[in-house]
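RETRY 2/3 - previous attempt timed out on the joint model. Re-submitting the same 265-residue input unchanged.
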Amino acid sequence: MTVVLDVLAGALMLGGAVLALGAGVGLVRFPDLLSRMHTAAKPQVLGLLLMLLALALRLRAGSVVWMLVLVALLQLMTAPVAAHMVARAGYRTGKVDSERLVVDELTRDLAMAAGIDLLEGDVVDDDGAPRGD
Amino acid sequence: MTVVVVLAAALLTAGAVLTLVRAERGPSMLDRTVALDVLTSVLVSGVALHAAWTRRTDTVPVLLALALVGFVGSVTIARFAAVEPEGEGRVLTREEVALLEAQRRAEQEDEEASGSDDDEHHGGPAPGEVRG
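RETRY 2/3 succeeded.
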């Protein structure tokens, strides 16, 4: 039984480490902020969870495993906060190229809020129809 | 177990080195922030790996502390991210520093000469704060 658990832990460790390496490669190779953030999230959430699971399988002691659950929960709560702040700052400082995005709802919504129709260049109402007199 | 741990440690080290490459290249502060965030989680993974290898339980609080405060740095930097002009993310040469210093000093002397008492601006946004 212990051998099975150790093998499982080893596999999970390797999985977490591969994700860390993948994030490193992605960070170096990807061209802009948003795609780098996309790879950065892999070791932050899944990689860390795999590592903690491997550690829990190795330790097999109740009280410490609960602490590891706490670590996982904290990471799951804080990683999105940091990512959100960085992405928002990136958008506001012009790091996001709207032309290269498949979906860019924020630019559209901000334009709508400002009353500008992106396609027509006209001033529009909230429902997107051109503003009549 | 040792083989697996050494292999995983090598992969983690390679990942950490690559994130350091991105942190060095930038080009913007936010790219460096993302890279350092990844470096923190690789560090957490490394501590977990060590604890799993030696079956030590006394390093688990380190994991807890890192997971707790790891995001503070990136949130702080993101809060004060400013538009960086192209080409400014580099170390200035000695001449450029001297020029900037001279400009700053001239401005300061101008201000003192005009005698404006505009030094009371409490509150308001911090310099470089992003709004909108």
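Chain A has a mean pLDDT of 83. Closing ticket.
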